[in-house]
């Protein structure tokens, strides 16, 4: 992976900060909106620099949270009215458009 720039980090952070309560976005949605070549870049940025963001509103393209965060992430989403079925968020109903 190419080096990630401060501008890319700030673009991802700004996009994640705009996801409203009760909505979600995928790593791919954010990558596309930020002009990044891969959702993996978003994943790396989220893993290293997102503690002060609504990180729980970012999920995989399958509608599932990251396995190591699943319980916490689904609890936070449920508190915002986003209900998962079999651990999967209904993207068609709650996907945020940038």
UniProtKB/TrEMBL annotation:
<keyword id="KW-0808">Transferase</keyword>
<dbReference type="GO" id="GO:0008168">
    <property type="term" value="F:methyltransferase activity"/>
</dbReference>
<feature type="domain" description="Methylated-DNA-[protein]-cysteine S-methyltransferase DNA binding">
    <location>
        <begin position="10"/>
        <end position="82"/>
    </location>
</feature>
<dbReference type="InterPro" id="IPR014048">
    <property type="entry name" value="MethylDNA_cys_MeTrfase_DNA-bd"/>
</dbReference>
<dbReference type="InterPro" id="IPR036388">
    <property type="entry name" value="WH-like_DNA-bd_sf"/>
</dbReference>
<dbReference type="GO" id="GO:0006281">
    <property type="term" value="P:DNA repair"/>
</dbReference>
<keyword id="KW-0489">Methyltransferase</keyword>
<dbReference type="Pfam" id="PF01035">
    <property type="entry name" value="DNA_binding_1"/>
</dbReference>
<dbReference type="InterPro" id="IPR052520">
    <property type="entry name" value="ATL_DNA_repair"/>
</dbReference>
<keyword id="KW-0227">DNA damage</keyword>
<dbReference type="GO" id="GO:0032259">
    <property type="term" value="P:methylation"/>
</dbReference>
<protein>
    <submittedName>
        <fullName>DNA methyltransferase</fullName>
    </submittedName>
</protein>
<dbReference type="InterPro" id="IPR036217">
    <property type="entry name" value="MethylDNA_cys_MeTrfase_DNAb"/>
</dbReference>
């Amino acid at each position: 992976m190419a080096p990630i720039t401060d501008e890319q980090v700030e673009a991802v952070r700004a996009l994640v900060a705009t996801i409203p309560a009760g909505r979600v976005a995928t790593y791919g949605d954010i990558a596309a909106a930020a002009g990044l070549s891969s959702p993996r870049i978003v994943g790396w940025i989220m893993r290293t620099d997102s503690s002060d963001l609504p990180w729980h509103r970012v999920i995989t393209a399958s509608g599932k949270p990251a396995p190591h965060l699943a319980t916490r992430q689904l609890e936070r989403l449920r508190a915002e009215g986003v209900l998962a079925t079999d651990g999967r968020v209904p993207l068609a109903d709650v996907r945020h458009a940038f």
